[in-house]
Amino acid sequence: MEMGLFQQQSMNLVMTTELRQAIAILQVPSYELTSYLQEQA
Questions:
Q1: What does the pLDDT read at residue 28?
Q2: CA-based angle 36:14:37, to the nearest 5?
Q3: For residues 30 and 38, what is the distance between their CA atoms, to the nearest angstrom?
Q4: pLDDT of amino acid 14
Q5: What local confidence, expressed as pLDDT, does residue 4 receive?
Q6: pLDDT value of residue 33
Q7: Residues in Cβ contact with 25 at an 8 Å cutoff, skipping those fewer than 6 apart
Q8: Alpha-carbon span 22 to 20, nearest angstrom
Q9: What Rg value do the Cα atoms of the chain yield, rounded?
Q10: What is the model's pTM?
Q11: What span, in angstroms and rounded, lies between the C-alpha atoms of 36 and 28?
């Protein structure tokens, strides 16, 4: 019987509302950005 030490590493990514909004803004083309931001305001 073999005994050993095992280590496990995990990472969880949480999509916050702010992160979702930032991703959405980054995907908007620059020529549509002004109107998009006015809609969101």
A1: 86
A2: 10
A3: 13
A4: 86
A5: 84
A6: 85
A7: 33, 36, 37
A8: 5
A9: 21
A10: 0.47
A11: 8
Q: Is the dihedral of CA 22, 26, 28, 32 positive or negative?
A: positive
Structure tokens at 26: 């980054």
Q: Mind giving me the DSSP string for the chain?
A: ----------------HHHHHHHHHHHS-HHHHHHHHHHH-
- Tell me the per-residue pLDDT of 5-38, one tens digit each, with 9 for 90 and over: 888 888 888 889 999 989 988 998 888 888 888 8
What pLDDT, on a 0 to 100 scale, did the predictor assign at position 1?
63
| Tokens standing for residue 36 | 């998009």
What phi and psi values does residue 7 have, to the nearest 5 degrees?
-125, 135
Spatial contact of 37 and 26, defined as CB atoms under 8 Å apart: no
